[in-house]
Each structure stands twice: as structure tokens, then as C-alpha cells.
Amino acid sequence: MDNSTNSGKPLAFNPSGVAAPPPTYSHIAITPVLPKTRLITLAGQVGIDPQTSGVPTDFVKQVELAYANLLNCLRAAGATPRDIIHVRHYIVNGQTGGEADSSEIIDRGWSSLWMEFMDKVGEGYRPPDTVLGVASLAKKELLYEVEAWAIVHESA
């Protein structure tokens, strides 16, 4: 798919391999910022299985699916995890009612999965991030969301 835009305006689309979002937004926007540079903004990716549109109840499974969806979106936009310039992680507070809820947000299992993901597909790169504990996400069964921005410079 040609994700370029000659108008200088953002191009928004939904890639295959990621569950379709509600009609209020697109998963990806590509904005030309210089003749050979594109800003890629991704909607928050969550643990929705693109094959079934189901949401696992397990927090770790949701995180793993969110990272797979993030990677699919980056690839669809012609980017890689190494192109990420900023990440936001949203973790629902009170997600299990168990011991994990009493631990710091950073210690709830997502961060080691993030580092493993970035080691595997992002060359060990650690982009700046923001981590937020939130009351809820768009659907009550969602426990984790990851949002990323990337910049891609095309070669001459």
C-alpha cells in the first residue's frame, strides 16, 4: 500500500491485521513534515485479537496483543519500532482486585514485556515514554493501551 500523500495533508487509514476501530477514528495517520520525512501517529493499540475481535481477560495476554497490533500498524505505515519517538502506556487501576493492584503501575508486568518487545524488534531502543494509571479505557474489558508516534526519513 502506498502510504504517501502528495497533498501535504495527513493520510489516515486502518491496516489489515488489526481489529477495525469504531468509525470515530483511524488507527494510523501519516503526515508529511518535509519532502522526505513523515510523522506517523498511531491510535492507542489494545489487546483486541484481530482474528476474533475478542479481548482476553488476562492482563499479560492483552499487553502482548497490544504490542503485536502496534507492530502491525507501524509496518503498515512503513515504520519500525526503531522509528518511534514517543510512547504512552495506559494501565487501568484496579484491574484485578488482587495483589498486582497494590503495586506501582511500572511493576505490573507490562514493562518487562515492553523491553522484550523492543529488544526483539526495536534493536534494544528505548524511546521516551509516559506511563499513566487510568480509571478505564474505551471498553470496560480493556486493561492496557499503548500509543506511539514515529518519524520516518526516506532515503534520497
UniProtKB/TrEMBL annotation:
Determine the domain of life of the protein's source: Eukaryota
Kindly give the SUPFAM superfamilies that the UniProt entry links to this protein. Answer: YjgF-like
InterPro entries, per database record: RutC-like_sf, YjgF/YER057c/UK114
> In its UniProt entry, what is this protein called?
YjgF-like protein
